[in-house]
Specification:
The complex is a heterodimer of chains A (198) and B (236).
Chain A (H helix, E strand, L loop, with lengths): L2 E5 L5 H8 L2 H11 L3 H6 L10 E6 L2 H14 L8 E7 H6 L4 E3 L7 H5 L1 E4 L4 H13 L2 E4 L1 H13 L5 H6 L4 H20 L7
Antiparallel strand pairs in A: 1-2, 1-3, 2-5, 3-6, 4-5
Helix pairs in contact in A: 4-8
Chain B lengths: L27 H6 L34 E2 L4 E2 L9 H44 L17 H10 L2 H11 L8 H7 L5 H14 L1 H14 L3 H15 L1
Helix pairs in contact in B: 3-4, 4-6, 5-6, 6-7, 6-8, 7-8
Chain lengths: 198, 236
Amino acid sequence: MTLLLRALRVDSMDRWLKLGQAGPTASEGAEVAGPPIWVIREFLPTDRDGEGLSVFEVNDKSEALTVAAAFAFESEKFEKRRYVFATVEKDKLKESGLDVVCTSGNFCHKLAESRHREIQIPNVRAAETIARLFMQGEIIQFEGRKLAIEARKFAQSDNLSYEPLARRPYSANWAWKAVLSFLGQKIVAVHGVPTKGS
Amino acid sequence: MMLFEPPPLPTTTFVVAQEPTTKPLASPVEDLSGGSRLSQETWRTSPVISGTGVPTVGFSQNSWVTPNFNGNAISLAITSDPSSADKVSLRAQMDRAQMEQIDERTQAGLQALSRKVELLARAVEAMARPVSHFQSETSAPAVVTAEVLNAALETGKLSDLLNFIADELPDTPADLLDVVQSALRDPDPVLRAAAGRALSAAYPDRALELLPGAIAEERNRFVASALQGALDAAFA
């Protein structure tokens, strides 16, 4: 089952939780009336999106965790946040006649980068459809502590590309610290500079 | 707030006259003003006496003298050519108008600047505070005591407090367990999700016991997802 993930704003989580309470009958009624305006706003492309709505395509929940950890790795206080994603099945989206385009994002993690997609939104009706589909889909929530462990794991692996991170205008301090420590490790490994341990 | 006291206007209109051949000196006023420049021929930082022979200062037929104020010093200018006097007089008046304009602009700029500094200071102060979802009159508590807990219970902001505990993991001398357990059965979905998160953060061992049952009973699928996330974090 191929899922498309869209990161939700944590500020709006309370409203999402109340929306989940509605149950099947009330959600059918909501379907007739259309999704609330704040839900539609969540799924409109912002400045950080490109032309379409920026999403990530994953095959299972463990890949979703990797994408979330990549998100967490890009933010500075990742241990103190939760990451919440709205999901929709890709097939349902295709049935509604919406296009999903493969685009390269600007992401530091190689897997997340390769899974980046954009949903094309040609008109307002399409935006409403997307909002409704996401509203009917599941929500996946990750706690920051779990993501921090995952992010540390892949920061030590070879899955990160540091170049987009270093090019990032914001959180430059933190990014450069990561880059420098990475380079420092590589240099030590290559030249065999004796460290304290050895 | 007046920073520069404008110079008093002379009651009698004197006329500035000088030979325009001297090279202009750099005036500090022009550096401050940024935009409009004062006429450098009439506004000087130091008295300049030019001309041939012995300079005469005073009211005579051919040389007119006026004190000028340029913010720093009085300058005197002398000419022996009365025909340029009219032009220079006009220029002096224009310069005064410019000067007042600059004064106004400087004051407006300074006010804008002080506003900016104030806002910046406030932003720095806000950034120094811990980031949290716990929005209240006072800043977020570093230690969650029984009083803080009771206050949150009374004001109905328990979900905010629990989310704050889950995010920040502050010291919690107060016994949260009973409160969290009752909150897990609350009709409010926001409170249930927050309780699950706080339980996972503060008591991971208890979360492993309690959360699976709570997830099984949960009817709200979004809350169930939040609880599942909390349970995963407790395992980690």
